[in-house]
Predict the 3D structure of the following.
Amino acid sequence: MHAYAFPGPQNEQQVAIVEAFKHAWKAYKKYAWGHDELLPITKTYNEWFGIGLTIIDGLDTMYIMGLKDGRYYNDEASSRFWNQISILVYNTLM
């Protein structure tokens, strides 16, 4: 089975969607990083499970959109989050 490689946005609509995602991700990182959901009007966040659901959901979206170079998730805050999640998953499975 071959993995599908997204070649990047191919038309104006796809470019707009990728740019909208980048805009939303930047706001999430600024106002709600590590929390489940950004509330953009109030620039605050909401918790459902307290595990950073938007991060988990956003990573596969980034992969599908071809945003795999690390600029959007490879920083100190992201590293701390993944360390915390790794510990949580490990403790849950053990």
